[in-house]
Design a protein that fits this description.
mainly alpha
Length: 286
């Protein structure tokens, strides 16, 4: 079977039952591998371009990066994420469209309630409010029990996130990140795992992988919990808009509520760490 045809095609359960476990695993993981390879290559090239600008631009560029280093870093990561999604978009689009058609044809719309059809605005507004409550509640709990302070890596990530210019942060965390991550973890991985394995396995494993993807213990636990809820509402609402909305609201809610206090705690040297992270990343990549 042609590699690209296998990777990009949306194969039905009857066909997948004929496949070996190894072939199913490749079907699940190869698109993820392509995503991460393209993401890393694009990010590497952007860092190299930035290094050239630092070298050729002189003090003006260095001064700009000292002030807006975290914002630049976030923008580069966002561009790389979108490029990675673009590389597997054919597979993602096929999974999202096929999953929606399968749900509509199975009668799930009646099972989940006709309210979603006639009261769609109210339903999505309620989903947004629930996402806000869950994200705020988990962050309060994690802070009160001292969990957020238990990971130095998380503290570094948090410092970088709050070093981003506020409006840029809204776009990165409220739009770019939800779109890219939901396309990969729910649109692609979760949908395929449901057909390759059992629904419950897909729900748990895709959520755990989503948490682990964030790279530190605090966000791994937080992301895994949110991943379970996002996948549940994805199936309930039968629309890819639901997980993107949930993810975006969860990100923006905490970001907006805590931005002022967190940003004010960062002194000038803290804000200037953006250039240090940039030069450090370029050095390691080189």
């Amino acid at each position: 079977m042609n590699f690209w045809k296998m990777m990009n095609g949306r194969w039905g359960e009857e066909e997948l039952e004929k496949w070996s476990s190894l072939k199913k695993t490749a079907y699940l993981l190869l698109p993820l591998l392509v995503y991460f390879v393209v993401h890393d290559i694009v990010e590497f090239l952007l860092w190299m371009l930035l290094e050239l600008l630092v070298t050729k631009g002189g003090e003006g560029v260095v001064s700009f990066l000292n002030q807006y280093g975290s914002t630049v870093q976030g923008a580069l990561y966002g561009i790389a994420s979108l490029a990675g999604v673009g590389a597997v978009w054919t597979a993602v689009k096929g999974e999202i469209a096929g999953d929606r058609e399968a749900k509509e044809g199975s009668g799930l719309e009646e099972q989940s309630g006709r309210w979603l059809g006639e009261k769609r605005f109210t339903a999505y507004w309620g989903l947004a409010m629930f996402a806000f409550c869950v994200s705020a509640g988990l962050n309060i709990i994690f802070t009160q029990i001292g969990f957020t302070g238990s990971s130095e890596r998380y503290q570094t990530v948090q410092e970088m996130q709050y070093g981003v210019v506020f409006v840029a942060g809204l776009v990165l965390y409220g739009v770019v990140s939800p779109l890219a991550e939901e396309a990969i973890f729910r649109g692609l991985l979760y949908n395929r795992m449901k057909r390759c394995f059992h629904y419950k396995i897909a729900l748990v494993v895709s959520s755990l992988l989503f948490g682990i993807y964030h790279g530190n213990l605090v966000q791994a636990v937080y992301g895994s919990i949110l991943g379970l809820l996002i996948a549940y509402f994805y199936d309930l609402y039968k629309s890819f808009a639901a997980p993107v909305l949930f993810h975006g609201v969860a990100n923006v809610s905490v970001y907006v509520m805590t931005y002022g206090n967190s940003a004010s705690e960062m002194d000038n040297s803290g804000m200037g760490k953006g250039i240090a992270w940039i030069t450090g990343t370029i050095f390691l990549a080189a």
